[in-house]
């Protein structure tokens, strides 16, 4: 057993394991453990360390501690880790030790220190609730599921599972667990903050800020004649050059969707096949588009796939981040200033590469009713109201985009992001803040004409759809 003190880190060696705790930005630590002779070189979601002043002290032979602003970590003589908030003096993470043999899959397991803790984040899943306490999540990318393993706790800390392995996160009432199906290292980042906005801003400081969103019109799938023909279909787009010039005169850029699939009947298929530019197979079909609802299509086997960086089971969640990075760096090298790409999946850090995450396709065609007046007068008046409202909010939305780029603040956020001292705000799941100015209460039921809205404490609220100001913590509002 040995503690090793460095300028901004403490390492601990016991048996074949090495544990390292180092400052990584203000009020934050990166924690790693491995049985390898040296730590792997990858930083994964993290950028190069943001150095912050820290105070390292060691009690020789017994325990060690490292302090970085408002966060302190202590390591016992057997390597058990305890992390606590210096401002409150309360522990926020304590490793959970088993007293019997356990399955040998690599995991980090922590005591649940507060039964009232609420946990939010982790990316895009399909669960009908926001508070993840009591939930179990698959750490894997799927259609309509984007795993971004960063969580914000009501106890005043943020936690990033900095491991791209396929795995599982369990936010139990008594134990919190992060598991990796295949890895040679445990790696996570933890930060304390006085508010959720402090925590999210610190997270984007170390994983990257989102890019400025350009003023664009998106021309999406299927604007080409055949898949693998990267051009406008002249039947519907007779003069794209003139169209783009007209849009530019209105200070609007045109953004096109590019798909990697190539139809055998397309004009490029033969040349791409002869040059070896298409996916190769050793057995079976070259490629097929599976209908995932078919009973013959069984569960994913993540262990089958192999990438340049390694087995999918070990680094599969890294794929969407590097996918965005490849396009971002290539487009930057070609001279494009603002790069934004619509993508189906993302991982921690994808935002720095212009990834604009969406949940999937919405079917459309030239024959569909595309205009707002296509659905009757009543619907048209409703659509017209919101189109006019959006037009009025353009300057405000630009402000929000700028704040997201500079500070990392999300445009849409839960009420507690702006009102963390209001305990009730942590429990409201059917309202959200659109920036710092507007509280939005969506209509969730057909035929609903009135809604009771919770108004967080500490602000005077004005109703957008009516005259006067709202008082108290709840108001009844007519649906717009």
TrEMBL record:
<dbReference type="InterPro" id="IPR013780">
    <property type="entry name" value="Glyco_hydro_b"/>
</dbReference>
<dbReference type="GO" id="GO:0004553">
    <property type="term" value="F:hydrolase activity, hydrolyzing O-glycosyl compounds"/>
</dbReference>
<dbReference type="InterPro" id="IPR051816">
    <property type="entry name" value="Glycosyl_Hydrolase_31"/>
</dbReference>
<feature type="domain" description="Glycoside hydrolase family 31 TIM barrel">
    <location>
        <begin position="215"/>
        <end position="288"/>
    </location>
</feature>
<dbReference type="Pfam" id="PF21365">
    <property type="entry name" value="Glyco_hydro_31_3rd"/>
</dbReference>
<dbReference type="Pfam" id="PF01055">
    <property type="entry name" value="Glyco_hydro_31_2nd"/>
</dbReference>
<keyword id="KW-0326">Glycosidase</keyword>
<protein>
    <recommendedName>
        <fullName>Glycoside hydrolase family 31 protein</fullName>
    </recommendedName>
</protein>
<feature type="domain" description="Glycoside hydrolase family 31 N-terminal">
    <location>
        <begin position="19"/>
        <end position="165"/>
    </location>
</feature>
<feature type="domain" description="Glycosyl hydrolase family 31 C-terminal">
    <location>
        <begin position="408"/>
        <end position="465"/>
    </location>
</feature>
<dbReference type="Pfam" id="PF13802">
    <property type="entry name" value="Gal_mutarotas_2"/>
</dbReference>
<comment type="similarity">
    <text>Belongs to the glycosyl hydrolase 31 family.</text>
</comment>
<dbReference type="InterPro" id="IPR000322">
    <property type="entry name" value="Glyco_hydro_31_TIM"/>
</dbReference>
<keyword id="KW-0378">Hydrolase</keyword>
<dbReference type="GO" id="GO:0005975">
    <property type="term" value="P:carbohydrate metabolic process"/>
</dbReference>
<dbReference type="InterPro" id="IPR048395">
    <property type="entry name" value="Glyco_hydro_31_C"/>
</dbReference>
<dbReference type="InterPro" id="IPR017853">
    <property type="entry name" value="GH"/>
</dbReference>
<dbReference type="InterPro" id="IPR025887">
    <property type="entry name" value="Glyco_hydro_31_N_dom"/>
</dbReference>
<feature type="domain" description="Glycoside hydrolase family 31 TIM barrel">
    <location>
        <begin position="311"/>
        <end position="367"/>
    </location>
</feature>
<dbReference type="InterPro" id="IPR011013">
    <property type="entry name" value="Gal_mutarotase_sf_dom"/>
</dbReference>
<dbReference type="GO" id="GO:0030246">
    <property type="term" value="F:carbohydrate binding"/>
</dbReference>
């Amino acid at each position: 057993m040995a503690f090793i003190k460095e300028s901004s880190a403490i390492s601990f060696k016991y048996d074949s394991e090495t544990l390292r705790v180092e400052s990584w930005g203000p009020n934050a630590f990166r924690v790693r453990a491995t049985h390898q002779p040296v730590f792997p070189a990858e930083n994964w979601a993290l950028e190069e360390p943001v150095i912050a002043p820290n105070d390292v002290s060691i009690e020789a032979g017994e325990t060690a501690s490292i302090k970085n602003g408002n966060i302190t970590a202590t390591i016992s003589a057997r390597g058990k880790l305890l992390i606590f908030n210096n401002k409150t003096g309360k522990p926020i993470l304590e490793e959970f030790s088993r007293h019997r043999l356990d399955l040998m899959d690599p995991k980090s397991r922590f005591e649940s220190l507060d039964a009232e803790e609420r946990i939010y984040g982790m990316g895009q899943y399909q669960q009908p609730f926001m508070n993840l306490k009591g939930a179990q999540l698959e750490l894997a990318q799927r259609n309509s599921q984007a795993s971004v393993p960063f969580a914000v706790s009501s106890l005043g800390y943020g936690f990033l599972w900095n491991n791209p392995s396929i795995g599982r996160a369990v936010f139990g009432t008594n134990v919190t667990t992060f598991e990796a199906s295949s890895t040679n290292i445990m790696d996570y980042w933890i930060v304390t903050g006085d508010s959720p906005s402090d925590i999210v801003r610190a997270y984007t400081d170390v994983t990257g800020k989102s890019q400025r969103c350009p003023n664009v019109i998106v021309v999406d799938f299927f604007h080409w004649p055949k898949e693998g023909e990267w051009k406008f279909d002249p039947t519907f787009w007779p003069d794209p050059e003139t169209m783009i010039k007209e849009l530019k005169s209105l200070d609007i850029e045109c953004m096109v969707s590019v798909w990697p699939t190539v139809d055998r009947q397309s004009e490029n298929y033969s040349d791409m096949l002869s040059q070896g530019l298409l996916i190769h197979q050793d057995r079976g079909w070259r490629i097929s588009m599976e209908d995932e609802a078919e009973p013959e299509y069984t569960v994913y086997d993540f262990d089958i796939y192999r990438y340049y960086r390694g087995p999918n089971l070990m680094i599969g969640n890294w794929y969407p981040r590097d996918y965005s990075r490849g396009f971002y760096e290539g487009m930057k090298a070609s001279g494009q200033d603002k790069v934004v790409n619509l993508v189906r999946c993302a991982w921690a850090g994808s935002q720095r590469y212009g990834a604009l995450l969406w949940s999937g396709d919405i079917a459309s065609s030239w024959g569909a009713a595309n205009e707002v007046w296509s659905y009757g007068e009543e619907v048209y008046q409703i659509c017209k109201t919101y189109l006019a409202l959006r037009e009025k909010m353009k300057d405000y939305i630009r402000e929000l985009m700028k704040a997201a780029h500079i500070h990392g603040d999300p445009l849409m956020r839960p009420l507690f992001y702006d009102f963390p001292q209001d305990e009730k705000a942590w429990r409201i799941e059917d309202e959200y803040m659109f920036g710092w100015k507007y509280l939005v209460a969506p209509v969730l039921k057909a035929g609903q004409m009135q809604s009771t809205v919770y108004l967080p404490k500490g602000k005077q609220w004005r109703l957008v759809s009516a005259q006067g100001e709202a008082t108290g913590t709840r108001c009844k509002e007519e649906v717009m």
